[in-house]
Design goal:
Chain lengths: 87, 561
């Protein structure tokens, strides 16, 4: 395996780690807090919102946006670090 | 000015704007026609994607669906936004790096097979046609309710507008009109929502208003739970469907969103891989403005409707109730002849039926806003329907000209290919218009098809195509067909063959037809994996292709390989 190839596969490995981390949060917030734990979380209040209901109709959507922007920042950094960026 | 004058004025102005943009940005080459020349900025692409994605259903019907479903309506909110995380992280950057024009392009090249490509084209056409018929119908309904023209004429006018800018401008024209349409639709959605939020809770931000308190100091949601419980309905903030079904539907909608060809193709139009990632973020942010407002509109709407009708004398009902009774979106039948309206969960004594579309369409009148706001909402609903229709028509025309004609007759000239693309777009507009005027009785049902099929066909094959070097054409073709056939049969059985059995006691594992796409997707994944293990790995040039799309460097312009 030459140098570029091993560098590329190291980049890919880091990329996969990032994906696993971000998608775990994606799953935990939407399916976890928004569906499986809703009834439990509804005993807590966020302003006038029952917390589980807030996660299902507001919180998970905000989290999704945040996750994509974190991904953008992380990948731009990785691209530069491994010299696979486009500019 | 009268409501009708304002509506004509604002809808007319918005149409003039779209046509102006179409003339200014018309496409000159196939590359401009298919992917806008690949030079769209991430921000513009984000807005265009948001308009492309938010259909007449999102704009007109979603809030009303949530009004009556309460917590269960969350499946739409999470399902139709969570898919963008999958798109941004798992699909968009790699497909942009792949650098061709369509989803079947990718399937055909990655699985080195015309057969795989044709299966993908059939899926793309089926998904897009079911969707576009609904949009045309939406345009017709808006015309007939606000402009007092028959639905048929509304559809024809809508067809002419879309025809003009989709056929002339291709992806380039569509992209920039979608940017304008996003601005129109989001403004139209937010204005009434903000005013209603101020009226009820004193908070101008609907997202905070929904969690706010009413004048008497009681939280809105708590009050709503109480009112609904008194009338015999389930509480607004707790679930009614089984958790399994909620989970399955949400996942099917998310994965389906990420597999819809007209959404995926938008990420081919940006210059670089990093722009594809960024524009998915912008797209979701723009979509979420509407999607986090919708639950507020939903709760405000059902609260206002019940407060202003329940136990009220029929002759004292507010003016908007009478206006919308004319269109049959609200019907009142005084069953016990006491001269008052009884709203109840009990079908026998309930005297009020409300169409879900009321929650958005009547919102300016409920909030007693000036007449121009009504015109604005009409223009917004039209923008939502037209932008989605245009995006879908482009997928249809591209599928015909590029994925079918060009694949089997690679020698045709670019000029001829462009002419075929335009002809196909024209044909698709006419066919969609026909279905808009004569809707098959099952428009609502076929939407379940579109998402289920996208989830069960495209999503697994594209994901494995990128993340697994071992998945081969045998696996992909079997997977797509198995996922597709399973989902198709399950939905058809409960929607068309035995609709009387469409309830949890007959469903497999308690999964409704809306959520079965999740199982279809799992079947597709398993077939892909198993069959690929048993058959030879993909050839060397495909292995190289996979390695290449994993690395952003060298994306360059989209091109014909």
């Amino acid at each position: 395996m030459n140098k570029i190839q091993s560098k590329n596969s190291a980049y890919w490995k880091k990329n996969l780690q990032t994906l696993v981390l971000l998608l775990s949060v994606w799953f935990a917030v939407s399916f976890g807090c928004g569906i499986f734990l809703t009834d439990f979380l509804n005993q807590f209040k966020l302003g006038g919102y029952p917390l589980g209901f807030w996660f299902a109709q507001q919180g998970s959507l905000f989290t999704f946006i945040l996750l994509i922007f974190l991904y953008v920042i992380r990948m731009n950094k990785l691209d530069r670090e491994f010299g696979v960026n486009e500019d | 000015m009268e409501i009708l004058t304002w509506t004509y004025l604002l809808v007319g102005l918005s149409f003039a704007l779209y046509i102006g943009i179409a003339i200014w940005t018309r496409a000159g080459s196939t590359k401009e026609f298919y992917i806008a020349g690949g030079g769209v900025s991430p921000l513009a692409n984000g807005m265009a994607t948001a308009a492309d994605w938010m259909s007449a259903a999102s704009f007109i019907s979603m809030a009303g669906l949530i009004s009556f479903a309460g917590y269960d309506g969350s499946v739409y909110l999470m399902g139709w936004t969570g898919g963008y995380v999958l798109l941004a992280l798992l699909l968009a950057p790699y497909l942009r790096k792949f650098g061709k024009f369509t989803v079947p392009d990718f399937v055909g090249d990655r699985y080195y097979s015309h057969k795989a490509r044709v299966v993908a084209v059939i899926c793309a056409l089926f998904i897009s046609f079911t969707y576009v018929a609904g949009q045309m119908r939406g345009v017709g309904i808006v015309f007939s309710r606000y402009l007092e023209v028959p639905i048929e004429w509304g559809v024809v006018i809508g067809m002419c507008i879309v025809f003009f800018y989709a056929v002339l401008g291709g992806m380039k024209g569509i992209t920039y009109t979608q940017v304008a349409q996003y601005c129109v639709l989001i403004f139209a959605y937010m204005v009434p929502a903000i005013f209603i939020s101020i009226q009820l809770t004193g908070n101008p931000i609907p997202q905070l208003g929904l969690g706010g308190t009413l004048e008497d100091g009681v939280p809105l949601l708590q009050k709503l739970d109480g009112i609904l419980a008194d009338l015999g309905f389930a509480e607004y903030t707790s679930g009614r469907k089984s958790i399994t079904d909620i989970f399955m539907i949400t996942l099917a909608l998310m994965v389906g969103t990420a597999g819809l060809p007209h959404v995926i193709v938008r990420f081919f139009t940006v210059p670089k891989v990093k722009d594809a990632r960024l524009s998915a973020g912008y797209a979701l942010a723009f979509i979420a403005i509407l999607y986090t407002t919708a639950p507020a509109v939903a709760a405000f709407g059902i609260f206002n409707t019940i407060q202003s009708t329940s136990e009220k004398k029929i002759e004292d009902l507010p003016a908007w109730v009478q206006t919308w009774q004319k269109t049959n979106l609200i019907t009142i039948e005084d069953k016990n002849k006491d001269g008052r309206v009884q709203y109840s969960a009990n079908q026998e004594s309930n005297e009020l039926s409300i169409d879900k579309d009321i929650m958005v369409l009547a919102s300016p009148e409920i909030a007693e806003l000036p007449n121009w706001v009504v015109g604005l909402v009409a223009a917004g609903a039209m923008a939502a329907a037209l932008s989605t229709a245009a995006g879908l028509l482009l997928v249809i025309s591209t599928s015909v000209s590029r994925d079918l004609v060009k694949t089997f007759k690679p020698e045709i000239s670019e000029k001829k290919e462009l002419r075929i693309a335009r002809l196909a777009a024209a044909g698709a507009v006419i066919l969609a218009g026909y279905f808009g005027v004569n809707p098959p009785g099952f428009v609502a049902e076929v939407v379940a098809f579109a998402f289920g099929l996208a989830a069960a066909s495209f999503f697994p094959v594209i994901i494995l195509g990128i993340f697994s070097t071992r998945t081969n054409k045998e696996g992909a073709i079997t997977g797509m067909i198995a996922g597709l056939v399973f989902t198709l049969i399950y939905i058809s059985y409960f929607k068309f063959i035995s609709p009387d059995q469409n309830n949890p006691s007959y469903w497999w594992w308690g999964i409704s037809p809306e959520g079965i796409g999740t199982i279809g997707m799992l079947i597709n994944f398993s077939c892909c994996y198993l069959i690929s293990k048993l058959t030879p790995p993909p050839p060397g040039h495909v292995q190289d292709l996979i390695q290449e799309i994993r690395i952003p460097k060298g994306a360059g312009q989209a091109h014909d390989h």
